[in-house]
Amino acid sequence: MKVIIGILSGVLLICYTALLPTSAQAEGKYNVLFIISDDLTYTALSCYGNEVCKTPNIDRIAAHGVRFTRAFCQGTYCGPSRAAFMSGYYPHATGVLGYTSPRPNIGPDKVTWPQLFKNNDYYTARVGKVYHMGVPGGIEQGTDGSDDPLSWSEKYNCQGPEWKAPGEGETLEGNPDGKRPVVGGNTFVVVEADGDEMVHADGIAAAKAVELIKSHKDKRFWLGVGFVRPHVPFVAPKKYFEPFKPYDKMVLPEKIPDDWDDIPKAGINYKTSENMKMDIRRQKKAMGGYYGAVAFLDAMVGRVLDTLESEGLADSTIVIFTSDHGYHLGEHDFWAKVSLRDESSGVPLIIKVPGMKPAVCDSLVELQDLYPTISRLCGLTPPPGIQGRDIRALLTNPRQEVRDAVFSVAPMRQGFLLRTHEFSYIQYAEDASRGIELFDVKKDPKQFTNLAQNPEYANVVKRFQKQLALKLETIRNNDLPPRQKKAAKKSVP
Ligand SMILES: [Ca+2]
User: Which of 110, 283, 341, 456 has its CA 20 to 30 A from that of 248?
Assistant: First the structure.
């Protein structure tokens, strides 16, 4: 009898203990591991449905977290996007439409996302690229880029050879006769590199993140790990490219004749198969090279996750995986970023909170929602003026909605995007003088038919035009220092 009672109370104790929240949950204080990739489209990830490019480690986060299918960046290239989600203000509020730190524009008194944690006794660290850094130039030099020192307890730059890495390289862009050597800059180059992961900035970043997790596990931390792949150059240890070779087996997105005929000139992306002079062979290699860089990135994400688990921190750490914006891999013969189509303005976003059920969430969310949401999850109060929304409700009930439309910009083209569940509305110039695109994303998810000139949609266009003007007015009506508000009205040419 005594034995039975003993066993029963043991079982009850185990059940009771299992129901207790972990100490991190009880205190509302988690560690935060923010992993950000550079120029990564969600379309390249296996957890988002890619069957060619396998990303088992990023998929691991998705398997235990909430994966957002309609997350959008606030600017479709590094500078504006990163300044927005780090500061909590849209690009047209801070005036960061190019490649600067948000700090001079938000002023010394405003608090960035990691800074809020730092002010609340967290150890905050940046490893690699979190605010803007030039890739590959800034990575070759190992410099700070457009950083914000007030955000960090410590920061680490990760230097790498980038396109200069020894190995087998080919310049795909602007090289129709094959005589152009491997070059740097923002150029499509594939380098199947000799040596291992530690040759490269992302291998070094993963190792540094592993070291910091181990040495700070006894204190609350906010750790930002910024990988630079798959940003060009597509460079990685040789083995990561093997699954995609021969590159000729890559399948390019559907091409339709006269695809550009119904869009304004401003809607044709800055990099196209045509102006990059990439024939089909080069286009396929660009896709395979990109996938190789993604596979390398994924493996480095895995090293950081493994450490979190082996150090016993998985139950006390919120893990976020995302990218600063998306990327075209040949859709409409567009390549790279800047475009406001879904492939470029949409981002992968996965949030894993210990103890919360995994889910897929189709609600419209913005990258800058991370600041208020993660702060609240950790029991911190975000500053009242920031422009993102607290989306905690979506983590427990992924069918809710927090907004009607997400907003993004491509200042380089004076482009603005309002994306609802039904439409993608893209306008060039505030007075729309550079053209409009309207896609019915329910009927036309690949965005082939521009409805902006279709009389049946005249009212829809008019409604969006009004909504956009109002949105910009709201964004500019902020609590930032007044001088910068004036600067924010200018667009980068
Ligand atoms: Ca980027």
Answer: 341
